[in-house]
Amino acid sequence: MDKLKPIILDDSVEYRVYFANSPVDEDFALATLSSLSSKLKQLSSGWLWHCEEFSLELVKAKVSEDERSSIPAHLYGVTHFGDNLDDEWLIVYMLLEASKTFTDLVVSIEDSDGQFLLIETANALPRWLTPERAENRIFLHKGQLHIIPEARHPGEVGVYPVGTPRISEAIQLISNGTFSTEADAAVQDLLSAKLAIFPDHIHKSRHIAQCVLPVSAAHVLTHDPTLVASAVQTFYGRDPLQMRSCRNMKHFAPGRPEDNLCVNTAFTKCLYAQLRQQRYRPGVKSGWQMPPPSDPQFVSHDLGMKLSYGLEILRKQAPKSAGETSNTAEQDISDQCIGPRWDKFLSSLQARDYFRGEMEGSKEHQRLTAEAKQYYSSQLAREDAPSTEVVRRSTEVGRRVQHILDNVPMDVEKLRQACAHVKPADSEDWMSIDQQELDKLLQQYHFGSDPSAASPAAAADSAAHHPSQAGQRYQPSVEPGEEQLKTLIDSMKQFVSGVAGPEGAEFPTSSTGAVNFTADGFASAISSLLGGNHDKDGSDSDCDLADDLDIGDFDDDDDDEFEEGSEASEMKSYVDEMDHQLAQTDLGGSFERAQAHASAGGSSDLPPVDIDMNLVKNLLASYSAQDGLAGPAGNILHGMGLQMPQRDPSSST
Q1: Is the pTM of this model over 0.70?
Q2: How many independent structural domains does the chain possess?
């Protein structure tokens, strides 16, 4: 049903693979599913999925009287990736690479945020493409991202669809190749840069650790290493009731210290960080004999204890009998479709003309109502209780653990022989980064894959570390602080004087790229702006910053205007009197005055307010008050591509 778009659970990605030559018979679809699954398995070989593995299943065609509600036969899958976004991007990489081989397939993919591919490539997208207009327009085909454009003039009305395209219409338009639907090169480059870490990242993201485990736990994880992810997730998301049930560990109880086994266990870095950072101390009666934290073996014992608890919880969640279902409290669909939420849902359908004017009680109205109830039961009702999906997955994994314990023979001697050749654990240095590395990562995220090109200051710093490339990088010929300060003021003026559009305020962009303030240059520019920067011979600096920054652009002291006529003269006297009164208050004393005007020997004893200097002063005060956290000043400056210098912790200002 086109108007009933399926809901994607949080932290999940949904993908659909359509056939270019529709309709297709079931045998052909199943053969394609088999060969495609084999190819995708090769692309993800060695990857440890965080929550759920990638999977595809065949969805048969759905034909409806309303052509927009018809859906062709396709392959469908959904994967819950949890806290590890690498799972999601690996799926994009897999499907994009597979589309190069299977050229007759068209792929769509989105997550709980919608078209996340557009979020990643937002800086290069055409302005017309908004989330509301993106439905059924974004696809992967032949290794490229395709965006079906809108008809921009009458000549394109018969070529490109008006409004939301039908799925069949979109697939035909992309697969035919008669009219261009490939996204611009800039969009393709952004997506390629995001996926460039694969396939090397599959191996680089692995972390091998030593874990001291009970024999039964070592047996289970040796037989099925992928259960490590489920054990970590279960322990990571444990609740007090689950831990209470583990007071007497029946299946993975710790043995004597000499009976436990030290084995190598493979994690992803995300899984390892989740497990390693969990703080848990087993009870005295639990049987765990943990070494002190200062002991070199503490980490391996700590990891093994946590994994054992995770496996125990999983085993206890397995059904007691084969016929027991995972949701014994499941209600009838009609019983679920009651209450205020259902009424609100039904009203929204009526507002969107879902029933197409059919009379209530008619056969067609009853059919549409039944479909709406079915959808509500399977999608919206599940959204009210997302833990149901978690319980389902835990139950399935619990069955796997139970099957290994009950049906796979345990060879203790073989396990002990493997322990004799255990490898050292990988270093944990990647878990700790300093301020410089964090800044580099943030800069890379904001400016692209080459942080050294983000700003002149970064380029100069890179040239200092790579003298052989210094001639190819930025070399400042003027004092950077003054030029950067001028950029700050000009950008802020442009931002304030700009007009906000329907989507909110738009930040100005500089033709010179992002600006990175150096602490020394910035302080020198501030000093010059205050009038305290002079040459050695006592004369004023050759670069009069007050003139360069157009100080007074917003000043209201244009004498020519006030001297025209008596009204202007009278208005000037009012303004002067107001300024004189404000000068005696705390408010008047809080403004910075123009130094150049004050030393000019003018007739007025009250120098005009320096608008630009007050702008810089208040921006700095607001930015400093954030203490490195997010705030209005930092967000505005960041949006304009202005990087402020790091605050010196030893400084009081």
Answers
A1: no
A2: 5
